[in-house]
Amino acid sequence: MNIVVIGTGYVGLVSGTCFAEMGFNVTCVDKIEDKINKLKENIIPIYEPGLEEMVARNVTAGRITFTTDLAAALKDADIVSIAVGTPTRKLDGYADLTYVFDAAKEIATALDHYAVIVTKSTVPAGTGYKIREIIQRTNPSLEFDIASNPEFLREGNAITDFMEPDRVVCGTESTRAREHMAKLYAPLAKAGAEIIHTDIISSELIKYAANTFLATKVSFINEMADLCEKVGGNITDVAYGMGTDQRIGNKFLQPGPGYGGSCFPKDTTAMVNIGERALSPITIVDAVVKVNRARPHRMVAKIIDAAGGDIEGKKIAFLGLTFKPNTDDVRDSIAILVADELARSGATVVAYDPKGMDEAKEVIGQTVTYATDTDEALQDADVMVLATEWSEFCALSPDTLRSKLKQPIVVDLRNAYDPAAMQQAGFDYISIGRAPVFAYSGEQAALARQTKTA
Q1: To 10 degrees, the CA torsion angle through 366, 390, 354, 14?
Q2: Could you tell me which residues come within 8 angstroms of residue 306 by beta carbon, excluding any fewer than 6 positions away?
Q3: Residue 18 is among the residues annotated as catalytic for this protein
Q4: Predicted pLDDT at 91
Q5: Cβ proximity of 172 and 147 under 8 Å
């Protein structure tokens, strides 16, 4: 089968490359000529573990090519996958489908034979029907089918998620389209993947329902962490006790600064808007959005409090800018928002991230200072903030931190360190939903008493 993937962003490039790895002939199309030229030179526009090597391998094997010429790409296409962006509209929070509908018009103009036109982008319920209307109106004589095939890729683990999926969802409304989708995913089905065949609208809703439910778990455990801080509980034990219940599960029950990235913020906002338009309010997801929106300000207040109530002129070593480790994505990153607010509150924020430095600069510019490595960020800092749990940050020993920091104060927004070990090493250590320890401030208080007595 010949597969055409329109869009070489995160979803399009990963999907196209994995289809090629499965043995299909894949053409990835994008309007941005510079991006296509770089891809031809194996310069990958995103960081995703293993992707660069997989692209190179399939280019060499002749299974994947990159072009700006959609008409040429469609010449022998059996399946055309739309994988363009659906950003949030600033006006009303609804998914902006401009790129999707533009792609549909261009497909209708250039395609001259039967193919299944698949929506891989995350789109509101009913979008597939609108795509069909656009194509029929543009090219009434074209024979085609539409399908919905949402992606469930976690950044940092996308290749494994594609090649070893929990499930593959295919929404179709004709036997011919279903047969094409079954053939497309036959290699994964043979490897044991469950292929869920459903209708188009249900397929579109599954994607939103899955993402918003996971976001709900994140906001829920964050509120439980806040409650633990107020009443004296330990969120680690609470989350473990919840997660061992098979009806709940332990995934997405790690407290932190809030969810971010390219999916959850966009999809939760869109889901609220979808419900409003359908006169069926999704009030739980609305509350989830509000909880997450307030989260960065809570984190900033926590850091300022740890610094003694005033951060004016103080150096803050800020570790992590991406919304999660193993990616360079800073879209809607809570870490970015916290770093920016701290800097605007008078602190000297010296930030370091293994992969997201250039991307962060595009978002917040020179509001913060960018270190060249972890040591530079830590050196003589008054407070250290762990914002993204990159493995190299989590591996830092208390002794290393103590040797670098001006004052041993650590605010851990990812609960990466052991409170007892940090206290034993002489730190003031503040985490999420766990009792803080104040070894350093205790030392200072004792020293002050001794000085006064003398």
Answers
A1: -110
A2: 383, 409, 411, 428, 430, 436
A3: no
A4: 77
A5: yes
Digit-coded pLDDT (tens) for 128-160: 999 999 999 999 999 999 999 999 999 999 999
Question: Domain of 324?
Answer: 200-454
How does pLDDT run across 30-54, given as a tens digit for each residue?
Answer: 999 999 999 999 999 999 999 999 9
* Token code pair at residue 403: 């040797």
Based on the domain organization, do 78 and 19 belong to the same domain?
Answer: yes
pLDDT the model gives residue 447: 53
Residue 134 and residue 58: Cα distance in Å, rounded?
A: 34
Q: Compute the radius of gyration of the chain from its Cα atoms.
A: 25
Q: CATH code at 57?
A: 3.40.50.720
The strand order across the sheet containing 168-171 reads: 64-67, 25-29, 2-6, 79-82, 115-119, 144-148, 168-171, 195-198
**For residue 386, which of 319, 302, 307 has the smallest C-alpha distance?**
319
- Residue from 170, 228, 263, 394 carrying the catalytic annotation: 263
pLDDT-based confidence at 450, cuts 50/70/90? low
Same domain (yes/no): 207, 184:
no
89 pLDDT tier (thresholds 50, 70, 90):
confident
Q: How many CB atoms lie within 10 A of CB 294?
A: 13
| Percent of all residues in the chain with a pLDDT value above 70, rounded to a whole number | 97
Q: What's the predicted TM-score (pTM) here?
A: 0.90
Same domain, 224 and 150: no
